[in-house]
Amino acid sequence: MSNCVRTIAHYDLDAFYVNVECLKNPQLKGKPLLVGGKSDRAVVAACSYEARKFGIHSAMPMKLARRLCPQATIISGDMEHYSKYSRVVTDIIRENVPQFEKASVDEFYVDLTGMDKFFGCIKYSQELRHKITKETGLPISNGVSTNKLVSKVATDEAKPNGELQVPSGREKKFLAPLDVSKLPMVGEKTTALLRQMGVMTIQTLSEIPVEMMENLMGKNGIELWRRANGIDDTPVVPYHEQKSISTETTFESDTIDIRFMQAQLVKMTERIGFELRQQNKLTGCITVKIRYADFNTLTRQNTIAYTSADHILLKKVKELFTKLYDRRLLVRLIGVRFSHLVPGNYQIDLFEDTTEMIRLYQALDSLNYRYGRYLIMRASGLL
Questions:
Q1: Of 107, 163, 171, 270, catalytic
Q2: GO cellular component annotations, sorted alphabetically (predicted)?
Q3: Which ranges of the chain would DSSP assign to H, the alpha helix?
Q4: Is 107 a catalytic residue?
Q5: Domains (ranges, CATH) in the chain?
Q6: How far, in Å, CA of 133 to CA of 161, rounded?
Q7: Does the pLDDT of residue 43 top 90, yes or no?
Q8: I need a surface site. Which of 100, 120, 245, 348 has the fewest CB within 10 A?
Q9: Which residues are documented as binding site for Mg(2+)?
């Protein structure tokens, strides 16, 4: 099986947030549309292809986006709605393929290796794409190749609402003429560095001796060279929603002190919220657990819009605790669990938050990471 040529399909929902909004209001189709906060200090969470023609992109300050395209329609994001559609697409894929990886709320890898014996991988990947669009109304693009890297780039080239196959043996030739910025993991800084070296295309990058790339960037240089040559051995990691991050605290003595318990909940939520962001994950389900002095244990959970933002998580945790707690009984233990985890970062939630809010979260996490996880926390967690 190790010598078998793999067949990996990559699917990406086109302008996901924008197209969900267009399902809710079809009159928005074909217009410059921005999803995000409406204040000048907010950021663009997503934008339509019509808006991108004006130079607008995600994570751009909303003030600048409005200046570039004054006629754009701005809509506050509805992460709960987007999460619902993400789950619907996930269920369709789960029901139709043997193994898939959910790379983000709107992006999937499917391992179709060996299915040629039964169906024909290309035909099957096309049928799955049409099925998703038919059942959800959302446009989706996909690429098919021998590895995740090339299939992802193929999807990007097929957008919007298209499909592209890169056959075995043609991976390097397909990548060669593309701009170096189109390689996954090549950000603005790396692109700028490569262009200073005169490297504009992936072909030029692939022709640089690997030893030189290692001297320049260390291990990252080797990986960049491999990618430029169309080499990627990373597996499709099976998606399991039951994976979770959790913590619980058993008190030294049973208590009915609600302020004390709420302070513990704040501390616990911040702790695993930090872990969530360090792993670049979002949670779609929160569970709160209470064990009373008589060892009777109760839990309550709530499916939520995907997030990793403490201020949202804390609000939900407190709501669940209030619904669960019976004030007449002594409490022995409380716990918090985040499940339905998917890859993603905090910025995905920022429809009403400002660039300052993003920087605050990044700064706090950076300090906690460097000097100890719980160096900085909310005052309400210190009781």
A1: 107
A2: cytosol
A3: 16-24, 49-52, 62-68, 79-96, 121-136, 148-158, 171-175, 188-196, 202-207, 210-217, 219-228, 258-278, 310-324, 355-371
A4: yes
A5: 1-146 (3.40.1170.60), 169-237 (1.10.150.20), 245-381 (3.30.1490.100)
A6: 10
A7: no
A8: 120
A9: 12, 106
**pLDDT digit string, tens, across residues 5-32:** 899 999 999 999 999 999 999 999 999 9
Helix H or strand E encompassing 163: strand 163-165
Least confident of 73-82, 101-110, 167-176: 73-82
* Helix-then-strand count for the chain, H and E: 14, 13
Tokens, residue 54: 């004006």
- C-alpha–C-alpha distance, residues 264 and 259, integer Å: 9
Confidence of residue 366 (pLDDT cuts 50, 70, 90): low
DSSP state of 55: T
Asked if the peptide bond before residue 167 counts as cis, ω within 30 degrees of 0, the response is no
Size of the chain in residues: 383
Structure tokens at 165: 């196959």
Count of other CB atoms within 10 angstroms of residue 212: 12
For residues 75 and 44, the answer to whether their CB atoms sit within 8 Å is no
What is the rounded distance in angstroms from the CA atom of residue 358 to the CA atom of residue 223?
A: 29
Render pLDDT for 161-217 as a digit per residue (tens, 0 to 9): 999 999 999 999 999 999 999 998 888 889 999 999 999 999 999 999 999 999 989
Beta bridge partners of 334: 249, 290
Residue 382 amino acid letter? L
Evaluate if pTM is beyond 0.85. Answer: no
Q: What mean pLDDT is predicted for residues 308-331?
A: 91
Please, are residues 8 and 47 in contact by the beta-carbon 8 Å criterion?
Answer: no
Distance between CA atoms of 66 and 74, rounded to whole angstroms? 9
